[in-house]
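Hello,

Following up on my earlier ticket. Below are the two sequence lines again, exactly as submitted.
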Amino acid sequence: MNLLGKDLFDVDSFEVEDFETIFETAKKFKSAGFTKKWSALKGKTVCTLFFESSTRTRISFEIAAKRLGADIVNFTASTSSLNKGESFKDTVKTLDAMGIDLYVIRHSEPGSPMMLKKYTDAIVINAGDGIRAHPTQAILDAFTMWEKFGKIKGLKVVIVGDILHSRVAKSNAKLLNMMGAEVIFAGPNTLIPAQAERYGIKVSYDVKKAVKNADIVMGLRMQLERQSNGFFSSLDEYNEFYGITPKLMELAKRDSIFMHPGPMNRGVEVIEAVSDSESSKVEEQVTNGVFTRMAILYHMLGGLSE
Amino acid sequence: MITFDNAMIFDGEKFYDGQFSFEQEFINTESEDKIDLKGLWVIPALIDTHAHLRDPGQTRREDLFSGSMAALHGGISTVFAMPNTDPAIDNETMVKYLYERAKSLNVKIKIVGAITKGREGKELSEMGRMARAGVVGFSDDGNFLNDAALARHAMEYAFELGLPIISHCQDKDLGKGYMREGWFSTLYGIYAMPDVAESIAVGREIELSYLTKAHVHIAHLSTKRALKLIREAKRDGINITCDVCVHHLLFTDESIRDYDTSKKINPPFPTREDQLALYEGLEDGTIDTIITDHAPYTSEEKEVEFQIAPSGITGFETLLNELIMVSKAGLPPELLLKKVTSDPATLYNLKAGKVETGYPADFIVFDPENSWVVERKTTLSKSINTPFWGQRLKGKIIATYINGKQVFKDEDNVFEERIVHSA
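Thanks for your patience. The regenerated structure is below:
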């Protein structure tokens, strides 16, 4: 495996062995702890290019890059820069002229990381493009599962809620399928994307049935505006049928975990009794986000051996 | 009189080996000379019944002149100009103005008038007056006329005027989306429209055609389900016809994996299953004609994120090459050529589309073995939004004749060398 110089557009940019290597590296970084500073990426410049607002992903990348000794600059536009009269192309070309080694891009439009690549020779990491993909989230999620269960193969993962608009669910489905987990998308029919089974996963409209014997129950952010667009009728009904409650979690395996990519809409897709319970790995995911992103940056940007 | 000898001639129906002569003025040769066209094809100049010339109002994309030059390069003699200009072609004065300007062009421009004022779907435009000025049909192209009662009245007028309604069938609500819904829209994360966005609208047009007896022509059909409805409607004797856009025969929803905005078109590229159905529809005659839907956009407009980019692809200059590609995929070349020559001529009562005594000398000399690269120096359209940009295409038009006059000549063709001076 050699990830040096590769781009990460989605999880299928890499091979299964690559993820195993990333996990091992992340584990090493994690065991060294938050206080340890590295100089592997000294002299490299990482640019976070965020066309869509995000706090946790941007900060997670920033901390990861800084821990490895890279310089990091942030470009943030609250909306697509197109609306401000400057095209995506011009924005990228301007930044590129300043010598960037690696871009971390977040954009509301699918395919934007590939579009970025047309204008730059720098390495590109997709940090979320519209409703398409969010590979680093899927990698940190898989790492969290791997850390807890020691493997991915054979795990039963149920992803609950608004799959249609979730780039996290889609990248997770791809990666977990690659690594041999059993994945179920569970949610209302209106929020399951067309022909989702072709990810190699199962679809269920009955969350209770789906969660039976699950190792992992993953919630997704449900945006309330989906209601006015007719994707569900009332929050009350949604909660009753698809909400993640302690009662639902009881149907899963005894040592099962709850995961959520955040930000959570407490009381919408999940209630506090679950998200703040012992089985909840939500904060662990955030911590792991830093270490897996360190591992990803380290391998992609040519970490010097120490 | 000039005689072409040894050519493979397509007369509008079939190919045959032979020669034909025509009255001419401008070819620089003795009147008794023969031109040996061994290895070349002579095809009636093509008829494109659906194109966007962007004139007036959007001339940074295209104008009447650049559009007509591009058409001649593509071997097209007759172009139907759709009314989605700025302002829209929705009144008699505008129709007359465009016909007046088109007089100086070698391409035969036919104007399609808007059904409603400003193509806004609210008030009927003056269809009678536009008919008097010579429009060949009516369309709110790009905008499906949502108001069924208004659509009915438009059809009643069209029936009275003996002209077709050309309908872009897409349900307004279901049709929100940037590609066809299916596995690839899920995979690519692009908001998509289901196939029934088209067939639901087609169903309404069939029923309104039944009610009003108007000739309704469905533009750029792209789904199996809509095709099925049209096939049945035709069998029932309803006055409905349809066309398919040539690009839809070559690209599928899967093709936009690279988010290339020059592959963004509306209706969007079909699924493979729908595309195969379109092939069947051409073979069994359900689909009457093939169009380019030539829709130029500037690079500035197209070089943005996929969902934000405008929909449309240029088509004039690659039409014949694309038809050759479709024939390689299994459809007979005669059938495909008929759909851009004699079939549209019959459908719209045009004396065109045939190499036959008494027809205007509008034809193309085509070299099937030659090839060309689609690039700035070889193309004449102002815009470059074609998925073939930069590619080498097999088959090259070496000359286009309109009314016996050579109006396009490939710069490195060896036409003159083929002249055989009679002894």
